[in-house]
Amino acid sequence: MSKATLEKQMEKHFAKMKEERRLPPRVLQELEDKVKALEITKKEFDSICTSVVESYERSLVEPGEAVGTVAAQSIGEPGTQMTLRTFHYAGVAELSVTQGLPRLIEIVDARNNPSTPTMEIHLNSEISAERNEAKSIARNIEMVLVESVASSFSIDLIRQAIDIRLDPELMEDKGLTVEEIVESIRIKIKDKGDVEAEDNTVSVYPVNEELADLQRLNEKIREIRVKGIDDVKHVVIRKESDGYVLYTEGSNLQDALEIDGVNPHKLFTNNLREIYEVLGIEATRNAIIAEAMNVLNEQGMDVDVRHIILVADMMTADGTIRQIGRHGISGSKNSALARAAFEVTIKHLLGAGIAGTRDPLRGITENVILGQLIPLGTGAIDLLMSPQGTQSSE
Predict the structure, then answer these.
(1) Buried (b) or exposed (e) across 174-183, using 16+ Cβ within 10 A?
(2) Domain stop point among 269, 294, 322
(3) Of 108, 202, 282, 307, which shows the fewest CB atoms inside 10 Å?
(4) Cα 257 to Cα 262: distance, rounded to the nearest angstrom
(5) HSE, side-chain direction, 13 A CA sphere, residue 253
(6) How far apart are CA 245 and CA 122, in angstroms?
(7) Is 264 in the same domain as 284?
(8) What crossing angle do the helices spanning 211-222 and 178-189 adopt, rounded to 10°?
């Protein structure tokens, strides 16, 4: 085989390994550099690659090592030293993001709604340096309710109408017209009344003229969304090295992806459930790792990423997000003693006793409870010896 053909086959093989992610990028690059410097045959090349992959897979973890216990200790111990401070973006006090221990608890509990949901939105490269474009996109994202642009609401009992006086300055700031507001109200209330506009006043004449109905409709009109996407209450524009970036208070990943000018490859949210529903479980796993590492790095905690990866894998292994708690991973263990050792001890022991559950005692916790050798480390193996080998030869 010619040298050129062999090099082509090597490149093809390395490209396949990179695609399959059999080795970490740095290890693969080092292997590629060293192999290309050698005068070897195709058979020798295949043998080297197979040997390196096998050696890497064998060295991932020592057999019998208590990876779960080590990970829990490595995250839990520095976690006790975290401060409970919050972190502010660009000095804007109204846009704060939960950090420290509360945020770490949110992540491992797989909360449906984080206490401070937020998105980081990057713009397309061709408009990222334009402030006016960033402002325009921010207006399209920020949720504007009727009450956000109204100076007053009043119920006229003589005319049996609801009068909404609009603020021209607020409307200009939000990029809205009276016609757009009237159309939004008309669509939302449908056949419950007629809508008329005169100058900056919108009048709604309900079909039902009861005072209670007027008050109910008045409250409903206040909450009508006229612009932006649901749940995004505020948007802050910040100038960064690669252009303008939008930070939001509130999160709505699905709708934000559909806004023109937003770079869909650089759109981040701290709401793990949204990521799972929109992008899938692999993206959620990556988000758990990134979010947890951000919290730890922000607090100056030097925790190895592999411990976080193990936690993320456990949380997402079955294709859904499970919390690390009695309603998730700990509560789904096969051993009744292991479940009882975590939380609600009596409930688990009574349930196991009534059901006549058998415990195979294969885990660590249940063996510690019984004072037996745990099946890890030196306890994971049995030593056998041949009686003949112990007899001294005479």
Answers:
(1) bebebeebbe
(2) 269
(3) 282
(4) 7
(5) 21
(6) 5
(7) no
(8) 120
pLDDT digits (tens, 9 = 90+) for 278-321: 999 999 999 999 999 988 888 888 889 999 999 999 999 999 99
Q: Is the dihedral of CA 204, 206, 210, 216 positive or negative?
A: negative
What digits encode the pLDDT tens for the residues 118-177?
A: 898 898 888 888 888 888 888 888 888 877 777 777 777 777 777 878 777 777 777 777
Contact 41, 16 (CB under 8 A): no
Radius of gyration of the chain (CA): 31
0.85 exceeded by the pTM? no
The residues, any chain, with a CB within 8 Å of residue 166's CB and separated by 6 or more, are 149, 150, 151, 178, 181, 200, 201, 202
Strands 193-198 and 234-240: what pairing? unpaired
**CB contact at 8 A, 178 and 200:** yes
- List b or e across 122-136, with b for residues whose CB sees 16 or more CB atoms inside 10 angstroms: bbbeebbeeeebbee
Is the model's pLDDT at 205 over the cut of 70? yes
| Same domain, yes or no: 252 and 287 | no
